[in-house]
Amino acid sequence: MQFKAPRGTSDILPQQQPHWEFVTRAAADVAARFGYRRIDTPLFEDTSLFKRGVGTDTDIVQKEMYSFQDTGGEEVTLRPEGTAPVCRAYLEHGMSSWPQPVRLYYVGPMFRYERPQAGRYRQFHQFGVEVFGDESPEVDAEVIELGWLFLRDLGLTGLKLRLNSIGDAADRPRHLDALRGYYSARLADLPAIDRERLGRSPLRLLDSKEPQSQELAVQAPRSIDYLSDASARRWESVLRAVDRLKAVYPELSYEVDHRLVRGLDYYTHTVFEIEPEGAQGQSTLLGGGRYDGLMEVIGGPRTPGIGFAAGLERFILNLQKQGVGVDAGRAVNVVIVHLGEAAASVALELAAGLRRGGTAALMAPAGKSMKAQMRYADAVESRYALIIGDREIAAGTGQLKDLKAGEGQQVEVKLDAEAVARAVNAA
Length: 427
Ligand code: AMP
Prior knowledge:
Blueprint: H1 17-33, E1 37-38, E2 44-46, H2 47-54, H3 59-64, E3 66-69, E4 75-78, H4 83-92, E5 102-111, E6 123-132, H5 137-153, E7 159-165, H6 172-184, H7 192-200, H8 211-218, H9 229-245, E8 254-256, E9 268-276, E10 286-290, H10 294-297, E11 305-311, H11 312-321, E12 334-338, H12 341-356, E13 361-363, H13 370-379, E14 384-388, H14 390-395, E15 397-402, E16 410-414, H15 417-425
Parallel strand pairs: 1-5, 7-8, 12-13, 12-14
Antiparallel strand pairs: 2-4, 3-4, 5-6, 6-11, 7-9, 9-10, 10-11, 14-15, 15-16
Helix pairs in contact: 1-5, 2-4, 5-9, 12-15
């Protein structure tokens, strides 16, 4: 029997790490430019936090959570998303007494029991941001701008922003009634799965993956037609604020899409997604929205909030598809090739001295031929090989070979960590 990584999970191998570093560094960098500070929450939480915070009618809670009882009898769940945990932390740490708004971001793994396919996994990683304590439309625009700039910084182009307003809890029942009326009159055209959803959560029919439902959704009642005056004014202000951003980002194109409702129950007012142009299906790079009611749902005082989450695996797929180059960096400066027992102990001490002084150095595998040791130095992409045999020890100098400068680039260097460090770091 051979073990494999669990279905829908993957190892991030050393050769893939430069892409991951690139993406996580870009996330931290753009978040810092907007004044967002990092927060890390546990990988698991009380199951009831997600049941309440995400909503019992959602796909996530209905069928995608990794939930279990731990040995102490606690019901816990591997986090399927980051917003409810960050809200829990906001309440737990009294962040309402911090200067408002509080701007936070996170990067880390999420877990959902989904059917794995390209761009959809059971363990995946999200970069997410949240802003609490400010309900102004300008903050909606700021969060959208942050997402847009992040994608730009990554070098992704040809992006499309889709926007919608689903109003607030008071607007929603009118829209849901209209949806029920519309779909009830067309039951025969609805696939079974959506007929069943209609009773529980009519909004889900708008972003259904079923082709017949997608066709019906085009003419379905639009949430923006059921907004109160205040919600409608707010929606207009958000659109004006996003239009204003076009002065800085002329390529920022958006479309209002009334089928965009997002999969989670807690959204209010603005919802948005960014995807590659011409994309179909499971390709959304980043999605978010406002959730002014969430904090109350999980037991806190009313606190406005807005955020987004972006799936890092999808960025990396897109970076590779668009051929965006990533600097692989160089880990090893010098590999010490040593021939004979005496050379091995000199090499050991030299490597230790180099590393202590800050130079990345390692010993080639012992007991191998010079050729095999040199091949190893190449394989780890070392810049230099330092060659030591009995003759070099007697002379007190080794041969330092520049592996990137072509044949014959070799100098003598004193067998002393400081001298070697000077020589390899001079380049
Ligand atoms: P959501 O939290 O469902 O709104 O998703 C936000 C973003 O996370 C999506 O736009 C995707 O980029 C990413 N995402 C969500 N679910 C998955 C998954 N199962 N596998 C990979 N990425 C995902």
